Amino acid sequence: MSTTTEPAAVAESTAAGAKKSAGRGPWRLVWDQLWAKGSARFGLITVGVLLLASALASPLSSLGGWSPEEFDKRAIDPYLGGMPRGDFGGISTRHWLGVEPITGRDLFARVLHGGQVSLLIAFTATAVVVIAGTLAGIAAGYFGGRTDALLSRLMDLTMSFPSLIFMIAMMSVAKDVNRILLITLVIGLFTWPGIARVVRGQTLSIKHREYVEAAKVGGARSWRILTREILPNVSGPIIAYTTLLIPGMIATEAALSYLGVGVRPPTASWGQMIAESIVHYETDPTYFLIPTVFLFLAVLAFTLLGDALRDILDPRGGRS
SS3 string of the chain? Predict the structure, then answer.
């Protein structure tokens, strides 16, 4: 009796699971797969906490009672070269993450506002890169011919430059400008060819599919085909690549600020805080560790999240 009912039970369970999945949208399925992975779940939670903390930097700093530029001379010892009073860099009920040596500025407030600046640059630079790279990649892959040759040579030329050296040179020459805007544009200028190549390859594999040919036969214009047929079908790899771009942008901004050509004081960023803490890392290691830990967690979380999204949205690209 049991042998006859078991296949029926299995079939019923499979049908129920299929019906349950069919009732969900594609992005809900992506979310379920992300949440099922431990590393992706860690990335999602960490990214959410960092974004929320950065967005609420001002009210959270007010809870601590200090602004990022406010000095607290009582928190440092002038007889010890301005070192923080107390253990672990001056961590206390007055200063939850300690204070900066010499100035006495609150590290909790500075690391929150530094994250706000670092993540703002990372997200805006990523947006510039994704928009420019997607437009160039779709145009090169769809139109082909001279358009493809011209854009491909431009990609090769841009990628052949030693980007970090050019970034340092450009940031050093342009002084009296908005540093956040300049960093965003400079990073975007040298980073767009990577995603452009990915999108170009995806477009080349899609433009001869049946639904694209049917749209051409139906008299659809190129703009409609690009936006209605091709772009939605390359959006998965673009989203996965975008998530993987963000940690690179965070690290690039930190590197430029560390080298002294990024964000200028008194505006805080994680890279700038790390650069300033190097002088004190032997006498006050807490000052060095706090922005480093935040930078590490941000890069790790976005990398884990990007890897998981790539495996889900672009499995063939993830295996290659």
Answer: CHHHHHHHHHHHHHHHHHHHHHCCCHHHHHHHHHHHCHHHHHHHHHHHHHHHHHHCHHHHHHHHCCCCCCCCHHHEEHHHCCEECCCHHHCCCCCCCCECCCCCCEHHHHHHHHHHHHHHHHHHHHHHHHHHHHHHHHHHHHHCHHHHHHHHHHHHHHHHCCHHHHHHHHHHHCCCCCHHHHHHHHHHHHHHHHHHHHHHHHHHHHCCCHHHHHHHHCCCCHHHHHHHHHHHHHHHHHHHHHHHHHHHHHHHHHHHHHCCCCCCCCCCCHHHHHHHHHHHCCCCHHHHHHHHHHHHHHHHHHHHHHHHHHHHHCHHHHHC
